[in-house]
Amino acid sequence: MARTLMHPPTKLSYDVASALIVGQRDQQEDAIIADFPLGGEMGFAVLADGMGGHAAGDIASKIVVTEMFSELKFQSGDPTTFEGNIPDILRDAAATANACLRHHTDHHPNAQGMGTTLVAPVLIRDKLYWVSIGDSPLFLYRDRTLSQLNEDHSLAGQIDALVEKGLMASDMAENHPDRHCLTSVLSGSRIPRVDCPSTPVALCPGDVVLVASDGLQFLDDCEIAGLIQETAHLSSAQITRSLIRALDALDDPHQDNVSICVIKVAQAHTVATHPAPDLATTEEAIRAILPSEHAETEGTAPPPQIAAQTDVQRGSRITVVARKTIDGLSMLCHVKRAEEKSA
Fold it and tell me: Nearest 10 degrees: CA dihedral of 99, 63, 262, 43?
């Protein structure tokens, strides 16, 4: 009977960089953090854009990022349970962060009216989950195409719909004074809309995940896509730098705060393994590891000496061999396993 060969899923690695710029604002109201342990199979980022013009927007974004990070870091300590409940964990963490905002405003009346957006992607192996509230975009760049994955909780979508129906001119829509009014935000009150899909987006090597505050959107989507295309072969830090430089080049007097996190997805590099030679004796092992070119310049190097030898369980033997060379002392640990009996 024919058998189908099952291939394991592609193991991915993440190259991550983030940046913050103040722009033309008086203070930084964005906050961002990313946690992608080196060599790990998962990581997450949390970004919050404090509501400009509202009291203590910088405090609101810091509270939300701190609470989200703490909860996600705690929950991810049990990877199996975490992976099986990511959407619920993300929703609960957002609700907890919102409750912290309410607690802060209850005890600091001068902070009444503060608020912030939130976008928090979680990557685990080849899956991308997220929770999003507000208008901070989560992009996926793949095959030279930039797509926004999360919902835009602002009036921009409704205004653009009027353009599509022929009820508003495109230039009027682009400059509409209510375009950036938010329809959902964290402020300590009820959250009207939460974008947190239960089904993750499948990731592939070569993908670039981009998390940002809306300050990045002083560049249009085509410009962002073009910059990523030009730098996709470079590191995440260089992609981030190119986006920041493009914003600086605009020299827009109204430039908002900008926070960016670039996550480059690649196929993990594995160290090639080769079967060990079937060496019957310690002497053959020595000849394989210490060839004749290690002989001293004058005469032949002294033969290797057994420094230690011991038998371990199941009949295996460990031999440590030392040899003096012109470069110092070379040592080899050789394990000779007992022959296994066939069933």
Answer: -60
